[in-house]
Structure formats: C-alpha cells, structure tokens
Amino acid sequence: MPTAEEQHKTDSTNLLLFVALLLLTIFTIWIFKHKRVRFIHETGLAIVYGLIIGIILKYTSHPEAANTLNVNSTNATCQQESTCPGLQFSNPELRQVTFNPELFFNILLPPIIFHAGYSLKKRHFFRNIGSILTFAFVGTLVSAIVIAAICYGFVSAMMLYNVDPSFNFGFVDCLLFGAIVSATDPVTVLAVFKELKVDVNLDALLFGESVLNDAVAIILVKAIQTYQKAGSSEFDSAAFFSSLGEFIGVFLGSFAIGGTTAIITALIFKFTKLGQHPVLETSVFFLMSWSCFLLAEAVGFTGIVAVLFCGVLQAHYTYNNLSAESKIRTKQLFELLNFLAENFIFSYMGVSMFTFSHHHFNAIFIVGAFIALFVSRACNIYPLSFLLNLGRKHKIPFNIQHMMMFAGLRGAVAFALAIRETCYEEQQMIFTTTLLIVFVTVWVLGGGTTQMLTWLKIKVDVDPDAATAVGENLPHVNNNGNMSEPETPPVRKYADSAWMFKFWYKFDQYYLKPILTHSGPPLTNTMPRCCLPLAKCLTSPQAYAENLDDDSDADFILNDDVSFGENQSTQNPPENSRIATEGIHTVTNENELKKDADTQQNNTPLSQEGSSEGFSSSYNGIGLSVVPSSGDDNQV
Amino acid sequence: MPTAEEQHKTDSTNLLLFVALLLLTIFTIWIFKHKRVRFIHETGLAIVYGLIIGIILKYTSHPEAANTLNVNSTNATCQQESTCPGLQFSNPELRQVTFNPELFFNILLPPIIFHAGYSLKKRHFFRNIGSILTFAFVGTLVSAIVIAAICYGFVSAMMLYNVDPSFNFGFVDCLLFGAIVSATDPVTVLAVFKELKVDVNLDALLFGESVLNDAVAIILVKAIQTYQKAGSSEFDSAAFFSSLGEFIGVFLGSFAIGGTTAIITALIFKFTKLGQHPVLETSVFFLMSWSCFLLAEAVGFTGIVAVLFCGVLQAHYTYNNLSAESKIRTKQLFELLNFLAENFIFSYMGVSMFTFSHHHFNAIFIVGAFIALFVSRACNIYPLSFLLNLGRKHKIPFNIQHMMMFAGLRGAVAFALAIRETCYEEQQMIFTTTLLIVFVTVWVLGGGTTQMLTWLKIKVDVDPDAATAVGENLPHVNNNGNMSEPETPPVRKYADSAWMFKFWYKFDQYYLKPILTHSGPPLTNTMPRCCLPLAKCLTSPQAYAENLDDDSDADFILNDDVSFGENQSTQNPPENSRIATEGIHTVTNENELKKDADTQQNNTPLSQEGSSEGFSSSYNGIGLSVVPSSGDDNQV
C-alpha cells in the first residue's frame, strides 16, 4: 500500500502524462490544420497517440506482474471490491493510469453534451425537426434491435458449434450492446463538414440525429440494465414493462429537469440586471446548467439528457437575455471545456486499448458486430428516409442518404456507456468490441469523409446564410404587437409542416419567448384579457419597442422547405420589416462590424468558426435575407 | 455500505447543495453590489451561508448518531484508514458532505494562485519590489516565529497550571501553527481597494505581500512538517538543517519549474502561429500552466508556488505573444475559475465549522492565537517599514503602515494548509483555531476596510494611470535598436534603486523580452557579435520595427519613485517616442476604441474591472503619460 504522498506523486505523474498527451495532440492538430491534412481528424489522432502511450506503458512497467494476473480472476476481483470499480488494469502500476469510469459520465461528458445543445444551429435544426426526431427515436430503436438480432445470430452459431464453451451471452446482452453502439458521434464528421462548409441540411440532419440519439441510447441502456437486474433469463413481461416505463419516465423526467432549469435561468436573467457583472452572470449560467445535471442524477434520472435539453433551451431563451460579454464568455467557456474533454476521452480510449487487462477479444463476435453495424445503419437510414420522403416536400436525395449511412461514427458516448460496467466477461467483451468499433469508425469513416463527399458529389462551400434566407415567410408582427400576415402569403408553405410544430412555433413566438426573453410581441396583446395584470408584469419594456424580426429566430421555420442542393437565395428581401426595425438593427450591425473588423485583423479564417458561429447566427436576424448566395457554382 | 448507485446519488446531492450555496452567494453578492453595501464582503457572505447550511446539516441528519462518535477515538480512526483521510465528520451522513482535503490543494487553490500571479499589476508591483520581497520573506518568517513564541508562552502556561492534562503541544507545533496563519489573504481587502480605487502603491504593497507570503508560508509549513517527521521532541540540528535545506530547495525548485514552463510556453507562442486557432491557443496555455503544477507535485516540489511564478511570468512574457482573442479568453477563464474556487472554499469553511466533528476548541489557546496574530503583524509591519523607509526615497507613511497592519486577513491558503492534516489532536486544534481566525479576520477586518480607509484618511478614487505616468524616465531605445538616454537625465532617479534590479531590468529588456516575445530591441544589436546567428534566429521580425515604448512594461520602474499621495502626473509627455511608433499605435488604439465602445454599450461600469484591467494595462504602453491626473482633489 503506497503512502498518501507516494500516491499523490503517482496521481500527479499520470495526470501529467495525459496533459502531455493532450498537448501533443493539440500541436499535431495545429500542424495538420496548417498543412490542411484531412485524412485523419484530431479525434483519430488523439486515439493514435493514446495507443502509442498505452503500448509504452504496457511494455515498460514490469511486464512480469502483468502475466501473473489472470483474466479469469476478474469476477472475484470485482466482487471483492464491493462497488465494482470498472476497469481492472493488468498490474498495480498500470492500475494507476486509470480513472473512475464514472468520471467520463459525470465530468467529461456533460460539457460535451451541453456544448452540443448550446451550439445547435436552431434554424437548420428546427427546419428538419421531424426528420431528425424520426431518425433519433425510431432510428436508434431500429438500430439497437437490428444489431442485437444479428449479434444474437452470431452468438447462437458460436454456441451451436461450441466454439467457446465458457461463453454465455444472452439476447439481452446483445440488446445492451446494440443500444451502446447505437449512439453515433457527431464530432469527427461534423468538424470536416464545418471546414468544408457542406450542405447545411445534411449537417443539420446528422448533427440533430447524433445529438438526440445519444439521449435515446443512454436511456435505452439504462432501461435494459434495469431489465437485466430483474434477473431471469427468460422473457419477463413484468420487467419488460417496468423498463419500458423507466425509459419513458426517465426521458420525460430528464427533459422536465433540463427544461425547468433553463426556464428558471432565463427568468433570472430577464428580471435581474446580473449582466452588469459578467463574471457573476457567467458563473450563474454555468452553475445553473451544472445543477440541472446534478439534480437529475440525484433523483435518479439521466443528467446527460437533462443537460442536453437544458443546453438547447438555454441557447433558445437564456442566451437572448445575456449581456453581450457573457454571450461570448459562455460560448467560449463551453467551447474550451468541450474541446479539452473530447480530446481527453479519445486519448484515454487509445491508452485503455493496451492498459486494460481484461480485454475479451472474440473474433467472430467482432466480425458479427461490424456486419451488424453496417446492416443496422442501412436499416435505419434508407427505410426511414423513404418514409420521410413520402411526407417531405423537398426529398432527401440518395447521395445525402448514402452520406448519412457512411457517417455513422461511434465515439465518446458509446465509450462512456461501455466503460461503465466491465466486471463480467460479457461486459468486457462489449467494452472491447465497442472500443474497436470506435477506432475503426473514427479512422476509416472519419478519415474518409472528405473523399466520400467528393465521391457522392455533395455540394460543399455552401454559404449557410444563403440557404436559410426564407425569413420573409413568417407571420409578421408589427410594432403594435398585432399579428399581420406578410405580403407574400405563407399558406402554401405552412401546409407542408405538421400542425404540431405550427402550434408549437406560434406558442413559442407569442407566449414563451415574450415571457422568457425581452423579445416581443408584448404579452399584453397576445394573452387573454383576464391575464392582463400578469401579462403586464411579465412583459419586458423592450418588447413594446421590439419587432419579431429582430429576434434571433426570425427564420425559425417549421417546414422542410429547403431542398438539398437547391439554391434558396431570396427573391424578395423583406424591405418593409427591415425598415421597421432600423434603429435596433443599427446597434446590432455595429456589433457585427466590430466583430468582423476584429476577425479580419486577426487573419484567422478558421479560428472564428467555433466561437463566433453561434454568436453571429443569433445576431444576424432578418439581415440574413440580403446575403447573396454563392452556392450555385458548386451544385451538381 | 451503500451501493455504487446510492453513493452516486448522495454525491450528486451534496455537490448540488454546494452549487446551490454558490448560487445563493452570487445572488446576494449581486444585491449587495447593486445596493452598494460594503460592510461585508462576498467571501464573508459565503462563510455566513456556509455556517447556516452547516447548522442545518448538523441538526437535521440524525443527531443521535453524532453523539455516539467520540472525539477521543480520532487517532484510532486515522490509523485504521491508513492514508489519514483528513476530515472526520460526526456521522455517516455528514461524512458525505465532505471532500478530500487534497481537493483544496490540488484543484481549488491552483487557479486562485495562478490568477493572482497572472493578474498582477506589474507596473506597481515592480516599482515596490524591494519592499514587497522584504515583507513577504522577512515578514512571514518574523510573523511565524512571533506567533509561535507567543502561542508557546500560552501553551506553557496552560501546562504549568495543568489546565488540560491531556494536552501535548510542543514548540514545533506552535511554529507550524505560526507558519499556517502567516499566509495572508489578498481577496477581501483588495476587492474593496479596487472598488474604491485606493492608492495604487498601498494596493501593490498589500497584494504583492499577500501573494508572495502564501508561497513562503506553504513552503515553510512543508519544511516544518519534514522537521516534525524527523520525530524527536528535542531540538534536532540535523533535522533543522535538512528542513532548512528543503525550504530553500523546494523554493528554488518550484521557482525553476514555474519559470521553465512559462519560458517554454512563451517560446511556443512566439515561434508558432497557434494564435490562428484561439481554442487551441487557450487550451495550450491552460494545459501548460496546469502541467507546471503537476510536474512540481510529481517531483516533490510545491505546485502552488510553481504555479504562482508561472502565472507571473506568463503575464510578463507569454501574454504578449497571445492573439488578441486569447488574451481576453485566458483572462476571463482564470477570472471565472478564481471566482468559483474562491467562493467554494469560503462556503466550505462555513459548512465545516459545524459538520467537522473533531473540533478542538481551547479558549486559552484561541485567545493566545489572536493576541499573537496582532503582535506578530505589528512586529512584521512597523519595524520592516522603518527599515525600508531608511532606504526608500518616498517613505511609507504611518497611515499606510496602519492600513497594512489592519489588512492582515487570513483566508483560503491558511484554511487549505490547516485542513490538510487533521488526524491528531494538535492538528485539530490548529484547524479549529485557524478556522476561527479566518472568520473573524474576514468579517471584522474585511468588513471594516472602508471605515478604516476613511479613518486613516487614505486617498481613494485615484486614477491608477496618473500615478504611474513616469515612463519618460526610462532609457530610450530608438528604432535602430541603439540605446540612447532620454532628454531628461534619469541618473538621479536610478540612484535610488538597488543595482540588482537595475541589472535585472536591463537584462530583461535587452535580452529576455526580445528572446521570449516579439518586442524589441533586436537581439542582433544587443547580443555579442559571436552570437549573431543565434540572435538573428531568435529575433522576431516585429522587433526591428518596434520600439521599446510600445511594450506593455514601458513604465516598468525600478525605484520606489512614486510617493504615497503625491500627484505624479507627467510634466513632459515624451512626444518624440510617441511619434516614432505612430504606425503601431494606430492599430492598438483602434483595438482600444472598439473595446471602449463595447464597454459603453453594455453600460457596465464595474463589469469590465476584472476582465479588461489587465488587458488595457498591457495595451496602453506609453500612451499612459498623457492621461491627466484627477487624484489631487482627494489628497489629504
């Protein structure tokens, strides 16, 4: 047993190792960005470096000790340490280079997921909301079941031919594996998309799908584990319905906690002047967002899912109430946390490939898993796209479908789900296979993204603003707060979208946004007469002066009205609404000009991507509609 | 034994409790700032809230369990848990509301200390460097020894009259206590100073003293603990010299690690164009600064001290190489981390007052400690001021001395040092007494700062730039890189400062700064002929075009040439140098104008304090000299 001081020194050394690994990765990323190398992405790189360090650690730290520990002793070890500690490492020294698996779920994932929600490009996201929800919910379930079925086929075959006598892998284990590897990762592909300015709707579809399916996969895994713990090997309908209930309950509960936190935060910033002190404001924003994670975990829901919805709503409501400085501060803070956490996780994956001692490689299962992955992705994308295309005015073309098929990478969430439980042989096999799947998909699919885009002739270098310049089709709210339809009748386009979203959109614009932010129309005009005192109390003074068009979501469109590859540049810029809000626009534009000047001064074409993207997308408002499109030349 | 899941829920609940506590503190801070309440500072508030939560926790969670645990069983508990876990809490549920004491030293203190170093106002700091070093080194040693002597007097008296027979508190314990409570805390007083814009030299003296004496106290405690572990109760000269050696070794080692890290970081940013990607740049900056902490801990030095020097040097060199965006990003990041960590520590202090079960209150010792504190501060400030005044051209007046005497608050560092070891009764008594000292000094001295400033008739509302506008007395380096003396001969003023600092200043300006940053003069002019190839290689292209005056430290003065309360507004603005660097100034000023415009737009007079202070102080350069002084009216 090492003394506390020795322990502390070892901990520091290990952490230093990972910091050095991160620094190495960052420098290589920089060199690659500098030289415009695209065959491998930063996450792929982080894995490679992790693998190298893992090999070095394994073969430099007393290999004889590693041999004395037997894989079969795992269960005993786990049961001795009553709380099932997760990773077992091959010798005491390697055991040091490990972190509590809960670390991934409780410290590293939340900022990644929150950032995903917070940096969501609402415009494109909501335009494709129907398709995204279908892919995320139905798609993930289909994917998990197909993977489970195929893997179960392979496992049964192995048992039948008695390949591995000690092998005991039931259908529920297969289902668990299916759920774990159904969480697709947006990081790598989307980084390439961003760099190449790929078609915004493809980007929105993939981003939306991968963000939401993380939530679905996480809760699915939780539900399956609840079912597993019910214990019987036969199908147990009581346990099934209880885990189904848990799935729905946890989802709704997490959603409610995330939503409530965001609403409270929005109201705090609306009714106080915390913005006078950006440090306090940013702290409150950070602490509130974190507290929704902790609250969800404390009451037994899923913090990650709560934090995701919290992030989406914080971006939709709270962001508008922040001071200009805090808008930048919060974006930059979460961007940094996301970057560090992500690279740490991918480095750690590489390291754990060699330092985790209880890997359980089963070649047949691994082959089966890769086949299952491929088939399940096909069963997810193509049939659902076909069904969605029946309802979409602008269809999802085949090249986009192929790209979505190709972009099914697995990453941090799958890893974090797999590493949580590695006590039993089946769990170890799941962990090992998941790790391999992450490596292969990140390297092969991530590295091949650029090539695949060229090959599928997908439009790149699209001006994201040009494709969204359809703001003129929104119901127009004038300064008196009375709704009036714009000159060009929007009826035809509205017919495309589901009534539910139309309802939600109106509810959001006329009630939620005015209640939660400073934007108009004033509630005194939209709420029933009986609620007048309440409406007066809730309406911000700015709402009377402001126009709907000035809001960041003026182009929050409900229908799938932008086709893939079609140029949607505006024919009729809404001159009238622009004039109506002249005064307010002047301020906004000054801000933009200043930002632009800064950007040019820095000569950093890429550097502003992460930080100012979300920022400017929230500032542009209706101004977008006059940006000329330059996308046509690349169209195929 | 709770299951992993229960444990996780409890952990989440506890963390949620602290997050809620922080939020509560922040809101109260905001209300207090809003209402301009100054009788209690935010740190004092955090303690009060912590105390309330502590009481609630203590009396709501199974009080009967608390009574069954006996204080005398402590040693047994400690020895059972072989690594001496620090805090013992009065019942299993309260035990949950605890954190590993190492958390304070390894997670919460580093950002606070780094921020202190990074936000150091170099101009005023270096002008008073001699006095600051004297107060920090000699003063802390004097303080520790005086406290130890007085406390030992009280302890001996108690033993003589047999007040507490079980009592066993040797001189070394007293010395340990003296070292722990000699670490003064800058937070509370300086926050008040900043708000009131108090005399900059008083501010610099107190800030410099409290930052550096943390380092001295931390290493002193480490050395005394080494001596203690040698074990004999008699004076052991071998152990004494080994701990003296350790004191010097650890100080120099930590200094070297911090310095090396900062130099490497500066060179990285000088010779790469990482600034094109601010996220990468900020990450590297953060990781490098953190790695110096980890490296120092891994090799057995003191991470906190390393991080302090690293922070000072990062601000002095690396900061100038950062891109404009990263300058703001890094400032804001560490400002936020500092704010959160600080308030967390002070909240936690309040909570631990009631939840820590092994408090050892000894009224006589506590009274003795407060007397010792008062006497030791007097023995530190007045004699040292007297000695320093013999050498200073502009003396430290008595009202400033009284204010320094009054401003001896104890805070986070003293707490972190005391909580590290709480196994034995003596350590518990030290912990309890330190906690009380922190509370009383933060509330009474912190709360009385404004009153005391008025009472002592110390100048407030001083324009910090006006008092430092003495840039014209520096040796002037023209564009050819040849040194030339300015028109007004500086000889008389230089005579005031020690040769060592003159040497250091020249060495820094002509060699270190040109090597580590982009500023001039070119090394090709200053280095010996034989090193010409190396000099060419190290000199940045900007150095040939740049002028010394353009650097952020143009007013880096070595002598204590600014008197307290005297108006130092410039009589002769150096027109010539201003014209010489016109082109470069244009860019800088544009940046400033943009910043100013942003600031005005936000209407946030206080919000910019923390974030833009360091920024503008680094941008102003020689431009300072034309700022008119407005300080005279308030002078008494």
From TrEMBL, chains A, B:
Main location: membrane
Keywords, ordered alphabetically: Antiport, Cell membrane, Endosome, Ion transport, Membrane, Sodium, Sodium transport, Transmembrane, Transmembrane helix, Transport
A biological process from GO: sodium ion import across plasma membrane
Domain Cation/H+ exchanger transmembrane: residue ranges: 24-455
InterPro entries, per the entry: Cation/H_exchanger_CPA1, Cation/H_exchanger_TM, NaH_exchanger, NHE-6/7/9
Gene3D superfamilies referenced in this protein's UniProt entry, alphabetically: 6.10.140.1330
Domain of life: Eukaryota
Provenance organism: Phallusia mammillata
GO molecular function: potassium:proton antiporter activity; sodium:proton antiporter activity
Cellular component, GO, one term: plasma membrane
Compositional bias ranges of the Polar residues kind: 627-636
UniProt entry tagged with the keyword Transmembrane: yes
TM regions (residue ranges): 15-32, 39-57, 103-120, 132-155, 167-193, 247-272, 284-317, 337-356, 363-388, 400-419, 431-456
Assigned protein family: Belongs to the monovalent cation:proton antiporter 1 (CPA1) transporter (TC 2.A.36) family.
Coiled coil regions in record: none
Membrane topology: Multi-pass membrane protein
Gene: Slc9a6
Pfam family membership, one: Na_H_Exchanger
Ranges of Low complexity composition bias in the record: 607-618
UniProt keyword annotation of Ion transport present: yes
Region (Disordered): 593-636
Entry protein name: Sodium/hydrogen exchanger
